[in-house]
Design brief:
Keywords: ATP-binding, Biotin, Ligase, Lipid degradation, Lipid metabolism, Magnesium, Manganese, Metal-binding, Nucleotide-binding. Pfam families: Biotin_carb_C, Biotin_carb_N, Biotin_lipoyl, CPSase_L_D2, PCC_BT. InterPro entries: ATP-grasp, BC-like_N, Biotin_BS, Biotin_carboxylase_complex, Biotin_carboxylation_dom, Biotin_COase_C, Biotin_lipoyl, CPAse_ATP-bd. Residues 590-666 form the Lipoyl-binding domain. There is one protein chain. This protein has 666 residues and is α+β, with helices and mostly antiparallel strands. The protein folds into 6 domains: 4-81, Rossmann fold (3-Layer(aba) Sandwich); 104-131 and 205-331, 2-Layer Sandwich (D-amino Acid Aminotransferase, Chain A, domain 1); 132-201, 2-Layer Sandwich (Dna Ligase, domain 1); 335-445, D-amino Acid Aminotransferase, Chain A, domain 1; 461-482 and 497-586, Glycoprotein, Type 4 Pilin (2-Layer Sandwich), CATH 3.30.700.30; 599-665, RNA polymerase II/Efflux pump adaptor protein, barrel-sandwich hybrid domain (OB fold (Dihydrolipoamide Acetyltransferase, E2P), Beta Barrel). It contains 17 helices and 40 strands. The strands form 9 sheets. Strands 14-13-10-11-12-15-23-21-20 form a 9-stranded antiparallel beta sheet. Strands 25-26-27-28-29-30-31-32 form an 8-stranded antiparallel barrel, surrounded by 4 helices. The chain has a 5-stranded parallel beta sheet with strand order 3-2-1-4-5. A hairpin with a 5-residue loop joins strand 16 (342-343) and strand 17 (349-350). The radius of gyration is 27 Å and the shape is globular. The N and C termini lie far apart (69 Å).
Length: 666
Amino acid sequence: MFDKILIANRGEIACRVIKTARRMGIKTVAVYSDADRDALHVEMADEAVHIGPAAAAGSYLVIEKIIEACKATGAQAVHPGYGFLSEREAFPKALAEAGIVFIGPNPGAIAAMGDKIESKKAAAAAKVSTVPGYLGVIEGPEQAVKIADEIGYPVMIKASAGGGGKGMRIAYSADEVAEGFARAKSEAASSFGDDRVFVEKFITDPRHIEIQVLGDKHGNVIYLGERECSIQRRNQKVIEEAPSPLLDEATRRLMGEQAVALARAVGYDSAGTVEFVAGQDKSFYFLEMNTRLQVEHPVTEMITGIDLVEEMIRVAAGEKLRMSQADVKLKGWSVESRIYAEDPVRNFLPSTGRLVTYRPPQEGESHGVTVRNDTGVYEGGEISIYYDPMIAKLVTHAPTREQAIEAQATALDAFAIEGIRHNIPFLSALMQHPRWQSGKLSTGFIAEEFPQGFKAPAPVGEVALRMAAVGAAIDHLLNERKRHISGQMRHVSSVRFDRERVVLLGRERHEVVIEDIEGGFAVVIGGQSWPIVSGWVPGEPVWTGTVGGEQVAVQVRPILNGVVLSHAGASAEVRVYTKREAELAALMPERLEADTGKQLLCPMPGLVKAISVSVGQEIKAGEPLCIVEAMKMENVLRAERDGTIAKIHAKEGDSLAVDAVIMEFA
């Protein structure tokens, strides 16, 4: 076994590998760029080596720098994580030449399966059903359009070396193919150093189901069940679960055996994933193979009890698999939410900045439910523009799917993040969605269920009553504290607060009464009493306790004369008044928002890649105005209506803050 390994990655996956290595008694070496000097993985590792500038092309993607770091520290092996160099055939070859072990598959397997074009050719040769498409390298947009016309729309344009939704576009017309081809090639080049793309038929109403395989260097290969990854946005997974609510045991076995056969055909000898596109009728087609550890591997670990990182390390050290196919048993259900630094109400555009508050829910097992949080950040740390916007992966495991979803919803409510925009409100709303809860999924789920984008819904029904009760409870606690402020002109005993209050939950009015009960107090709303039990202290970002005997977690953010409460996917400003105060508040004029209709504002912090128009140019609705890059994704900003360009305030290469004015319209 190795004494010391180097992790050629950053963020949560680097921290994840370090945890397993530490448990195995293996020392770890972290590498870091200028932007990651103070990163969590640097702090966690036994040693750390600086490898270059913030841009990945000058640091994490430079093989020579990784090898130099290994030689300087005496690391015997390298775990690549995912992304960066993890699927580059040249990386394990260079490591081998330097006498360093690659904790991953052999270069031949990476060449055969890591390249999406070659993997489809290999699958076709092995008589594996594949999605119709053109498997050759496409030279230009004209050829891409011709191929798409022959295949039939819609089509998927995909980077050959891609992953994580980068370098991927869906096109429904020839014009969209031409533009998507250019964007996919550009993103592929900047993210993977390989601008090859291919075109295939896009299957409508599909499900994305993948099989985890594990092989060793002695010819043994097994599969560890499946993961359902159909909840996607812009072709990037958002929520994953294991097992899939679609599959029965017979289909699971067919998919697993096919995945194993494919892995055996290329001599696969590590952890890898065979991805399938599945129809609602349980038909399935080979999509691609990821020759690395997947982002969503924790849900497989939770239902199998197998540490995939440990198995990868043991296999790389030459050990045989410690289990056979018969030993693999699936237990319970697991759900994973990817928590991203992005603004869901601004079409999920990236958000950067400092994590002023970062308080994840408590990890561990209780009453058969497990909560796990894989992360690479900490409170006070910074989310930069240079890398993937992932903050954490929140994972829950329980005996049933319904219980795992309920646990996930509760954990999301208890996850407090401030300082940047994030997608927890969206994830919380998803957990409450009836279609998600029923398991009727497809990769078009988000586009179909949120066609106008996402806006946190106003609380209704019992959720609204719980939030009103919590708002009243917070106000009551603050009033109790005011009674004990020292040095008041009036004696504390003479201070009395009205027990009849008005809770304004957004625009909804709830009249409540605070009544004393044995052991505490209750909030009475509409004649219904809600006993309140909580140890919440003012200033804490999450209110936890019981409301009417039910365990509840509610996000709390202070605002002027009130708080913003978020719970169960709903959010609202909450202010608590006396009846007279409520009458006066109703007379206050509403603040009007500034008119920015004649300006193009930068929707996220990012880099201006291109300006597509000039001053005085007439534009039509839908016409591209500029391209802003953030977190490895290129975002085309388009005109919302016809007009004329009056002024342009930004130029190519500018780094802009959110809401910076890019141009003005006449």
